[in-house]
TrEMBL record:
Protein name stated in the entry: FAR1 domain-containing protein
Highest taxon, organism lineage: Eukaryota
InterPro entries: FAR1_DNA_bnd_dom
Span of domain FAR1: 11-53
A UniProt-annotated Pfam family: FAR1
Source lineage: Eukaryota, Viridiplantae, Streptophyta, Embryophyta, Tracheophyta
Amino acid sequence: MTFTDLNAAKDFYEAYAHHVGFSVRVGQHKTANGVITHKRFYCDREGFRQEQKGCLVALLASASY
């Protein structure tokens, strides 16, 4: 999918997450010349305690300027 900016990607992912039934956690981001070029969004259960495994959804948003 293509979005106009990283905020549009975040809005889409949050709406999808709400529809499916999970929350979003914002992960790492990369910058170039002070501008964010990549940002990761995860399921709120991703990467934590073992008993909460099972979330297979994530979004890596990349900006091209």
